[in-house]
Specification:
CATH architecture of the domain at 203-353: Roll
Shape: rod-shaped
CATH class of the domain at 203-353: Alpha Beta
Radius of gyration: 62 Å
Structural class: alpha+beta
Low-confidence stretches: 163-223
CATH topology of the domain at 203-353: Mannose-Binding Protein A, Chain A
Number of helices: 3
Largest sheet: 8 strands, mixed
Mean pLDDT: 78
Distance between the termini: 167 Å
Length: 353
Amino acid sequence: MEESAYSDVLNLRRRQRRCRPGTLIALLGLVLLALWAGLLTLLLLWHWNTERDLKQLGDTTALNISQVSKHLERHKGDQMAQKSQASQVLQTMEEIQAEQKRMKTQDSELSQDLDGLREALSNLKSQGLNERRAALTSLERLQEEVSKLWMELRVSNARDPRVTPGEMLPPTVPPVPTVMSTTAPTTAPAPAPALAPATAPAPAPALASATAPAMVLSSTPGSMCDMCPERWVSFQRKCYYFGEGAKKWIQARFACSKLQGRLVSIHSQEEQDFLAKHVNKKGSWIGLRDLNIEGEFVWMDGSPLEYSNWRPGEPNNGGQGEDCVMMLGSGQWNDAFCSSPLGGWVCDRLATC
């Protein structure tokens, strides 16, 4: 029994040995087949995925190409529009340049015409000013000579023993009319003062400047303004000019007229005190005189004598011809000969705003 069992085992082992290579080969074949099947499945899956990706890529590419084409067409359209606008701008620039050249030519012609007109106007103005200046100078000299003759006639009549005080005097020389000029300078001489005839005495009118015919001076403050020209002194809304230089009374009168003022008229103690502080210590002419009627003193503003500051014993008409009044260095008044030169004279005018 033991031998039969041993022989069975050996037979079985032999059979196993005989069957093992075939089984291995079969198993190996099955494994290879499975590998090939898996590989083929992967290849198929990769192929399908690749085709799908390629299709999507193709669609995307086609869409992008379409959009790029549209953008290119739009860009070409914009370039054409820009070229058209550029050509229009260039044309407009050329037109502007042509217009500028034409305007420069016109400006040059106008400038030449204006230069010619200015030169002609300057020549005419210079000629007119020279003629006016000569005429005004001659007229001023004539007025001064007439005034001197009139004053000398008054003085000679006052000294004539045949003429008693208050007697009618011979007719005086009439005033010379003044031609007003719209372009007269501020230093132009004033119109001649109105000379009252001896047969009808009247207060002397106020002098007016040729450049300010509407200005009327007054002894009473007429405005709240207190502005004065250069070298004039302001006091109680009036301006005062203290002139220096040897002048006769008539010369001082014309000097004040040239300054657009007149010989000062004094109407209060305050004004007198102010003037006494600034007056020339050697004596100054003021605007008081009795040339028309002896003893009847009248101010340059036409008002009668209401306030006075005479030196004791004055006025005395010493020498039968003291018809003009001066202010002494002390501030007191004295009648003197109008032809006597004094080193000072005082003008006044209203202050302005």
